[in-house]
User: Which sequence fits this backbone?
């Protein structure tokens, strides 16, 4: 993914949860915690390098349309550049040529999710790994799709299943915490996001979502303290104030905040049942 300034990343995290709650976000990027396929190479982090990477794989793809390795790398670069329609088209062509290739179906499902074709993404992702070798990263994407379709209970089942395979994986925990928030269970959301943020692998996005939930609970001072891990005190204060204003001005956010006052018992990852244990592919 292209690098972003901390404040921009924080604003993006707010938009993600706000838009999911309000039904408008279409970015299923790395917050899913999905693992890279064995056919993919590492994406550059700098914007210029990422564009050069996309151009490189675009040329290879142009010479070999539908070829697995070129398709996956080119589509991942397009997704990182938010060119979601193009990424989905690239992976669709690959899926037509290899309709039973799990890696291709997984990348196709993620591209469809980014594009916003949620029902089609849901269908493709159900075929993206074998039942005896479930993939925790793709399960996390399935959970994200379910949350977007307002099936929060189904989403949380996917996250719990993923955590059976990859315990304490911070990005799966992050998604689970956001799912609790979307279903108006702010207490469990905070607990889960704190667990995610405590993991050494957690990055700014995880902490930003914890700060968001803390603010929704009215814990503005704690939200500001968490935000300072990744930005200056002045920026942290401005961003928390922006959340406060957003809650005050939007009925859906106020409804979410009110729902958080009801303490609901929610299954924790270690109590999840009927979840196959296997190593991700």
Assistant:
């Amino acid at each position: 993914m292209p690098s972003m300034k901390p404040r921009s990343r924080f604003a993006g995290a707010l938009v993600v949860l706000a838009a999911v709650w309000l039904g408008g976000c279409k970015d299923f990027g790395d917050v899913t915690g999905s693992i890279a396929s064995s056919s993919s190479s590492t994406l550059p982090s700098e914007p210029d390098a990422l564009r050069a990477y996309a151009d490189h794989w675009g040329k290879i793809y142009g010479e070999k349309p539908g070829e697995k390795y070129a398709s996956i790398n080119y589509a991942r670069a397009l997704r990182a550049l938010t060119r979601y329609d193009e990424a989905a088209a690239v992976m669709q062509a690959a899926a037509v040529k290899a309709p039973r290739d799990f890696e291709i179906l997984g990348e196709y499902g993620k591209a469809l999710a980014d594009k916003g074709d949620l029902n089609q993404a849901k269908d493709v992702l159900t075929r993206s790994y074998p039942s005896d070798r479930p993939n925790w990263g793709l399960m996390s994407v399935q959970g994200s799709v379910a949350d977007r379709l307002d099936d929060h209970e189904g989403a949380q089942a996917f996250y719990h299943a993923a955590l059976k395979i990859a315990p304490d994986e911070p990005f799966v925990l992050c998604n689970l915490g956001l799912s609790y928030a979307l279903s108006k269970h702010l207490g469990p959301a905070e607990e889960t996001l704190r667990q995610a943020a405590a993991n050494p692998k957690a990055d700014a996005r995880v902490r930003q979502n914890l700060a968001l939930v803390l603010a929704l609970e009215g814990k503005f001072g704690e939200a500001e303290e968490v935000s300072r891990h990744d930005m200056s005190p002045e920026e942290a204060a401005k961003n928390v104030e922006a959340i406060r204003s957003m809650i005050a001005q939007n009925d859906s956010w106020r409804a979410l905040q009110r729902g958080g006052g009801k303490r609901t018992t929610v299954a924790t990852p270690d109590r999840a049942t009927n979840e196959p244990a296997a190593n991700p592919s």
Observations:
- The two ends are 22 Å apart (CA to CA).
- Residues 1-36, 261-281 have pLDDT under 50 and may be disordered.
